[in-house]
Specification:
200 residues; mainly beta; elongated; 9-stranded antiparallel β-sheet
């Protein structure tokens, strides 16, 4: 009788051990670096677009937290320079400069693949103003600053070079609140932009 109980216990132990061995593939080991799916990155990007049909250049820096390779949340800052060459009663030459920033949200599709697609959104605000001289002139300053609200959705294609570096290229459209500049100057900074960037 004792031998039968011992034999039953050994068989049961073997079954449990084999089951655990099969299920062990479903667990993530802490030292398995390939399975790290959360993290924080620094992103830098440059883009080109139009404001009021004039050439516009933008640069951005963002810091974001990536949750399970499916969603990003962070903060972003954007600087812009637009070759407006504006004419007004207060100055004869003026390009538009400024910046905006705020909350960065980015849902990600196909996050486990080498190539992903994402839909970034910026919600925030900033200010723009006109230079009262040539940007190359060391005595140039900015006139007629005006605050703006900005909502900027977009679509990106992402390419994972490695676990630590990702390239992005995309298209965005910038919606802004109206400005209070005098007639003849831009009424908003709405417009498309295309750009490339890197995340580290």
């Amino acid at each position: 009788m004792i031998h039968q109980k011992l034999l039953f216990f050994l068989i049961l132990l073997q079954v449990v051990a084999s089951t655990n061995a099969q299920e062990s593939n479903d667990y993530v080991e802490f030292n398995d670096r390939k399975n790290v799916v959360h993290g924080v990155y620094l992103g830098i990007a440059g883009s080109y677009g139009k404001i009021d049909k004039k050439d516009t250049y933008l640069g951005s820096v963002k810091i974001a937290y990536v949750a399970n390779q499916q969603f990003e949340v962070g903060i972003i800052g954007v600087g812009l320079y637009s070759e407006q060459n504006a004419q007004s009663s207060s100055f004869s030459y003026g390009d538009l400069v400024g910046g905006y920033g705020g909350l960065h949200l980015e849902p990600i599709l196909f996050g486990k693949s080498r190539v992903n697609m994402s839909f970034p959104v910026l919600i925030g605000g900033g200010a723009v103003g006109y230079l009262n001289g040539d940007i190359d002139d060391p005595f140039t300053d900015v006139d007629q600053w005006d605050a703006i609200f900005v909502f900027e959705p977009g679509v990106n294609v992402l390419y994972n070079i490695s676990r630590y570096v990702q390239l992005e290229a995309g298209l965005k459209y910038r919606f802004s609140s109206s400005t209070d500049f005098q007639p003849g100057l831009v009424s908003d900074i709405n417009g498309f932009s295309v750009g490339i960037g890197v995340k580290v």
